[in-house]
Every structure is written in structure tokens, then in C-alpha cells.
Amino acid sequence: MSIRRKWLWGLLAAVVFTGLLGRYLDRVPKRHYCDFRVYHHASVRMAAGEDIYVRDTMAVTPFKYSPFFAFCFIPLGLLPIKIAAGLFFALNFILTIVLFRLAADIAEVRAAAARAGALPLLYGLAVLFSARFIFLVWDSGQVNILMCVLVLAGLMLVSKGKDMPAGACLAAAILIKYVPAVFLPYLLLQKKFKAVAWTLAFLVIGLVLPSMVVGVQKDISYLGSWLPFITQTSLDKLSYIDIKNQSLFSMVIRSFSASGMGVNIMHLSFEQGKILGIAISALLYALVLVKGKRQPGQAGLDAALLFCFMALFNPNGWELNFVALGLPYILLIGYLIEVKWKDSFVTMSVIMAAVLSSVFARDVLGKVMENDSNLCSNVTIATLLLIAALFQLKFLKIKSINGKEVV
Could you tell me the CA-to-CA distances from 351 to 128, 347, 377, 384, 387 in Å, in that order? Predict the structure, then answer.
């Protein structure tokens, strides 16, 4: 890319960022800073040595993250919340760009798209299809983009044999939200023992770091409250059957158990529905661990599948978690560009996934249609379509992937 073109892209990004930041700062105070207020409040309380898992005011929802997370947010907690929220929005904007760049590298599709002169199409479609989830993360001040970038960075470092920094990235991602732990069994089977060992070591370091601020006893108290608090407030029955929950477990429970949500295909009990959801999830995960036919591009395919699982296997699968679909989208779009869109199954899967996950958003068709689509688990089904397309690339005969013929 020429220097002039880089400047033009940089100017465009600056203009877009300025407009989006103005939009965000105008609307977020009216929404009481959404999820960001929870992080800011918890970091303020940790800095003061107070209990972050006791809800001291009903105006702020409970803090459900690790003590390490609150510790990392202390610098933002020292600032007025509007300034802190603006800075975090800027970080999320930059990390979104990093996410798609890293995703293209992990998927090994950027070079082929560049040769075809299709880089704008590759990134443009991937961003467009993920836009609903990106805006949900930005507007709520959530951390899912940061988590995904840390996982992608960890995987990139693992591929380069840099196990210690890879472990630091993966551990930080797991301490933000535990779902990136789905990569650890996979890395063990790939014989990446050092990377897993460093991840575990940095997990321990991350758990003790808050003691630098609050002392050892208080940190132990935090750790003793953290997991039971998550269980009580996030893994309860109401969270599973909530129509906004698009996890695989929730779809199965709503569809096959007597949940009272109006889509009961069968009449299993709640626990039986949850066990069925776990069994289906275990089967899908086992298929990732099976070696496929695609040795070129195999790691990227597996990473894309596991990114789908980070959203789909999250018991609290709120829609913003599906920003993780950025990697699957960019891999599949890159593949379709390479084969000139001649793979009809993958093409239809990607298009249908994009429609199901984005068109029924509240800003597009209104609240009623959004609720109906959530009841029918549209985002879950969209993710399953992407998984089916990825499994086709992993196990079935295709023309080429990453510029190499496959027979």
C-alpha cells in the first residue's frame, strides 16, 4: 500500500472515529454509562480497599469479573467517568481495527485477498456482517473486543514459538472472561505444552496482582467471593431461559424443555435440557479436536471454530459476545474470494448467517421483531451456520484454501 493511500485510510479512520465518539459521548450519559459504569465503580471501590462483590447501590449492576479485571481498570477509575468512558471507547475503536487485522493473519487470507485486489471487500464485508455486535460492544463499554484481540495475539505468538508472551495474552483474556479457556485443551492436543504452562502461570500471577493494592487478605476474600457470586447471579435458571441469551445451552433449553417460552418442541425438564445442550456442545468441541483434511489452513479453521464456541458456549450468551464471529466471517469471506464465490454451500451459509444475526436488530426492524428473533435464537442459528461452513472446509473436499490445492 502506498504512503498516500495509507494517509487517506488514516484520515478516513480519524473522521469516522470522531463522529462515532461524538455520538457515544452524547448518548452514553443518558444510559448511565451501561456496563462501563460497573467496571469504573468496581475499580474505584478496589482502589479504596472496599469489597467489589457487595452491591453497595442498586444504581449499579453487580460486578461479575475477576479481581484482576478491576485491578487493571484502576487507572481509568481515577478519572471522571465521562473522560474514562471516552478513553475506553477510543481503545475499543483501535482494538476493533487490530482485531480484523489479526483475524486476517490468523485465517491466512490477507495475502490472497491482496493479490486479488480484494482487501477492501474482505474487510468491508467482515466488518459489515459483524457491525451489530461491534456497536453493541462499543455502546455498552464492554470488553469483548479486548478479550478477542488478546486471544488472537496469543495464538499468533504461539504460532511463532513465543510461548511466554502468548501465555500472558491468553491468561489476561481468560481473566477478563473465562470463555477463552476453550483454547487450552486444544493447545494441549496440539502439543503446545509450554504455551499452556505459561498461561497457567500467568493466571496465578493475575489472581495475586490485586494484593499489591488491597493486601493479601483482601485479595483472598475477593477470590473467595468471585466464583460463588458468578454462580448466583449469572448461572441461574432465569439467565438461561432469557430470550436475549443466545448461547447454545439457552437455545436447547428454550426449544426442548418446558421453559414456558413458547417454543417447546419437547417437554424435557430444565436440567435435562441443559444436559442436552452440554452434550451437543461437547460433540461440536470434539469435532474440532479431530484432525481434518486441510493441513494448510488447519490452525486458522480450528481457531475460527473455537471463536464461534467462545460465544456459543458462554452460559451468558448475550448478543455482544458474538463479536467473536469476526474471525469466522473473515476466514470464510477470504476463502470465498479465493474460490470466486463458487462454493454455494459456504456462500449461502455466510449470507444466511449475516441476515439472521443482523437484519432483525432493533434499529432495523424494531423491538418486536428483535424479541421474536431472540425467542427463535436467530443469532445462535447464524453461528451454527458458520460452524457448518467451517466444518465443510475442515473435513470435506474443496478446490483450494490459502492459495494451495487440496485433494
Answer: 12, 6, 17, 13, 13
- Whether the Cβ atoms of residue 308 and residue 390 lie closer than 8 Å to each other: yes
Residues in the chain: 407
**Phi, psi angles (nearest 5°) of residue 97:** -65, -45
194: burial class by Cβ within 10 Å (0-12, 13-18, 19+)?
A: middle
Task: Please tell me the distance from the alpha carbon of residue 256 to that of residue 87, in angstroms, as a whole number.
Answer: 44
Per-residue pLDDT of the chain (407 residues; tens, 9 = 90+): 567 777 887 888 889 889 998 898 888 888 888 889 999 999 999 999 898 888 777 778 888 899 999 999 999 999 999 999 999 999 999 999 999 999 999 999 988 888 888 999 999 999 999 999 999 999 999 999 999 999 999 999 999 999 999 999 999 999 999 999 999 999 999 999 999 999 999 999 999 999 999 999 999 998 888 877 777 666 677 778 888 889 999 999 888 887 666 566 777 888 888 899 999 999 999 999 988 766 567 889 999 999 999 999 998 888 999 999 999 999 999 999 999 999 999 999 999 999 998 887 776 666 777 777 777 789 999 999 999 999 999 988 555 544 454 43
| Buried/exposed 321-332: b ≥16 CB within 10 Å, e otherwise | bbbbbbbbbbbb
Output the CA angle 30-144-317, nearest 5 degrees.
Answer: 90
Longest Cα separation, the chain: 63
Nearest Cα neighbor of 283 from 263, 314, 313 is 313
Question: Partners of 401 in the beta sheet?
Answer: 404
Is-contact 80 69, C-beta < 8 A?
A: no
What whole-number distance in Å separates Cα of residue 284 and Cα of residue 213?
Answer: 42
Is the pTM for the entire model greater than 0.85?
A: yes
Structural contact between residues 228 and 234, judged by C-beta atoms closer than 8 angstroms: no
Rounded Cα distance between 316 and 235, Å, is 8
35: which residues sit within 8 A by CB, 6+ positions away?
Answer: 61, 140, 141, 142
